[in-house]
Amino acid sequence: MPLKRFLPLFVFAGILIAFMIGLSLKPSEIPSALINKPVPDFSLPPLQGDGIGLSTEDLLDPENIVIVNFFASWCGPCRVEHPALELLGKLDGVKLHGIAYKDRPKNSLSFLKSLGNPYDKIGTDLKGRVAIDWGVTGTPETFIIKNGIIRYQHIGPIHQMQVEDRILPIIRNLQQEGAS
Amino acid sequence: MTKIGLKAGARKKRRLYFLLTSIAVLGLAALLVLSALEDSIRLFYDPTEIVEKNIGPGQNFRLGGLVEEESFESREVAGILINHFVVTDGNESVAVTYEGLLPDLFREGQGVVAEGSMNEDGVFVASEVLAKHDETYMPKEVVDSLKKRGEWQRKAAETHPQDKAL
Amino acid sequence: MIAELGHYFLVLALGLAVIQAIFPMIGAARGSARMMMLGQPAAYGQFFFSLLAFLALTYSYLISDFSVAVIARNSHSLKPLLYKISGVWGNHEGSLLFWVMFLALFGAMVAYFGRGLPKSLRARVLSVQAMVGVGFYLFMLITSNPFGRLADVPFEGNGLNPLLQDPGLVFHPPFLYLGYVGLSVVFSFAIAALIEGRVDPAWARWVRPWTLLAWVFLTIGIVLGSWWAYYELGWGGWWAWDPVENASFMPWLVATALLHSAIVVEKRDTLKSWTILLAIIAFSFSLLGTFIVRSGIITSVHAFATDPERGLYILVFLALVIGGSLLLFAIRSDKLQAGGLFAPISRESGLMINNLFLSVAAAVVLYGTMHPLLSDAFFGVKSSVGAPFFNLVFSLLMIPLVVTMVYGPHLKWKRADIKGVNQRLMAATGIALLAALMTFYVTYGGAIMPAIWIGIGVWLLLSSLQELASRIKLFQAPFKDSMSRLRRQPRSSWGMTLGHFGFAVGLLGIVGTSAWTIEAQKVMGLGEDMTIGDYRLTLKDVIPVAGPNYTAVRGIISVSPKNAEKTGESFMAYPETRTYVSSPITTTEGDVKTTMAGDLFIVIGESQGQGRWGIRAYYKPMQVWFWIGTIIVVLGGLISLSDRRYRIGTPQRQKASRKVKHAP
Fold this sequence. Notes:
The structure holds three protein chains of three kinds.
Chain A (H helix, E strand, L loop, with lengths): L6 H18 L18 E2 L9 E2 L9 E7 L4 H5 L1 H8 L4 E8 L3 H11 L5 E5 L3 H6 L6 E6 L2 E7 L4 H20 L1
Parallel strand pairs in A: 3-4, 4-5
Antiparallel strand pairs in A: 1-2, 3-6, 6-7
Chain B lengths: L1 H39 E5 L1 H6 L8 E7 L5 E5 L2 E9 L4 E7 L11 E8 L5 E7 L9 H10 L17
Parallel strand pairs in B: 1-2, 5-7
Antiparallel strand pairs in B: 2-4, 2-6, 3-4, 4-5, 6-7
Chain C lengths: L1 H29 L2 H5 L1 H24 L6 H6 L6 H7 L4 H22 L5 H25 L23 H30 L4 H32 L10 H26 L3 H24 L5 H5 L2 H25 L14 H33 L3 E3 L1 H21 L10 H7 L1 H17 L6 H23 L7 H10 L2 H26 L1 E7 L4 E4 L2 E12 L3 E12 L9 E3 L2 E5 L5 E4 L1 E4 L3 E10 L5 E9 L1 H19 L23
Antiparallel strand pairs in C: 2-11, 3-4, 4-5, 5-6, 5-7, 7-8, 9-10, 10-11
């Protein structure tokens, strides 16, 4: 079997490897400039009624680790990560807030009604202005905050696997950091 | 017998010729590709890299970033438009001048890619401002650079990178 | 309900594809006619259900059913009907469905028209075709379901990018996909031949119409895309060498090579493994074009990785299909009998040189396209390889290719007499030299390459006419004889003549428009004017206009000859800038005045305040030659496709009698 006949196969293997390396450059690995910066100033209306749904003050909570999740009812991956959020919302010493991104309040409400509402407080960012300040790439995106400082940013849906592997360790670390 | 031997010999010889021609063609093509690459490859820098790498005059490259809000001004001299604006990546910024009409997609606060070089005063003189007909409305190099600098603010609801037109 | 039905049909089609993939293959191996026979009904059924699924999605688009996620994301209730339909394939999920529907259609066509094929070959072809199909169905059902619902129905859809609302773009992707998918049949034939271990002239004749069909579709698709770029994007360009364009150009180059090498297999029973390899590569490039570029891995590594599941599936799928077939090639291709010898000066040598250069060209495009990805992945350096690279490489690489095109058709099979051909081409060569010198003289002081290229273009143009003339013995036999010979020319040789002639016409257009385009721009108030080339443009007025789903600003510009004493006709141009309701971006609708000498392309930009407007104009010499040339090429392909000897439906049972004896 002459070796030259394998040449096309080798060339293709090379190309494939280049793609694999390309694939492994994941965007969520890119460090965000907002890390270790204070949360942006904002104040958003709630899904229903008047007043304030969620504002910067809610994130300055000194007792809890605060998680802010940008979501929308029209976003498929948000559905995917919903179980993970429910899990995070039930943790002790953790407050999970949501920001509905460019979503009609009516739709957000029925979205939460059908899947369950894991959030403590919810703000509606109808025009996506606040999302810009946060440097949000798209929904879903999740921020972990301690004492009003952003410590971690997760781009894209949180898969259940990642809760164990990544999110929980980060929360535990942050909690211990405060204790010591 | 002799006839067959000759035939085999001729066959080998022709094979060899063919092989040599192919190698010559491939070699020439490779040479051509490499020399062409040298001249026409355009490196891409964002403002931070320009400062970090201390890019001076004389080097042609592509600059990408966001057009800083309220930095754009243009005046008209005898029908020619002279534009000034600042390109930023949230970290550093670079002043740009460009003579001519800007593409329709050019907006303050939006991504831009310009080709050109730095002048002595540290101003980027653009020979071309690219209007990418990319559906994501933002050139990918800019997106990558902005993500790196944490300035990335694309509205996901409006753009879906998968839905590229062929 | 309709969407769920569509989903259900898709699953049914998958089931039938699995049957079609497994049983005919086993049947062919065991010689079981019963199992092989399963292939046909399965192929028909698979097509039927995939068509139903496609219709279900189309229907959902038509009624603007925004509960379907894809539709909510891409459509808008205000969108004109045509664009609602084109929206079906204007996105990732829909285009996959479109793809697989045509894959099934071509499978059904092989089943129907392939009745004359040997049973085992047909069974294997159908099986391979279905295997590719299974990959697509699974990909859709697992990661990109076009029928996925939203729990909360949005009131209005997101709309389609207005740039894509153009008739050129409505038909561009379908033709491109037809070309890509058409190559799948050629691929299936190649894999089936590898499994059978036999490639012969009969095989080449069966494959030829499929290759030609795919190639014609691909050509139309590419040209429509560049037509769209030219008229819609408003920067006066028709080819930018961007990765998306390159992705369609690479399979085209390989398919063109394949078209020619298959002729050598047919006439001389040689170059077999090369032809098989080309068939595999052509389809591999199609897959690459469909997946990798759509997913954005070449344009942006990151866009691709945002959905790792999809990305991974694509890589695995590509590895299986392309890697698997190349492995099969490596193991099995030496079973193919090697063919006869080539004389260095002969038709087959000409075709081989053509293949060599076309493949090198494809490799160059592949490298240029991959370079930014490679340098980013391995060295972390962001760079772009732009048009100058490709233009330079192609302008040199194409010279020997076109010279081969000049000589090749005049050469006889086996052993040709180059002196005779030189003599025959004397007049053509002379005129071509003259054309080059004249061009050089007229553009004195400019670049020299365009003059050379004009010469080469004219040479090819005349040589292809000369070849036809000598075939019908024009001026050598009585005129009446010649005419009756002309009528008796087989359609496949008409195809060649038109193909090469059209290529020459298009080539001249490319040279003209890329070498001598002029551009001018000016900011003008009402009543002011500017000049470009021999024209003077006067801005008469600017008025607002309302369209069905956009508002626009329209310039009214009068165009007259530059020199007032020249009393050439003057005319009006009405370029527009449109702002769409559903999307925040604007598009320019340039006004183009076309003559054989060149296009005058006028674009109005944004208001610069104080009643002043930016006007941009291009003069693109011979642009229309390119479009005419491509039309002739496509026409040639269609005529060749209708050749009775090769027609898809005609079973060809001519065997050894037609085989040419090998040259000593």
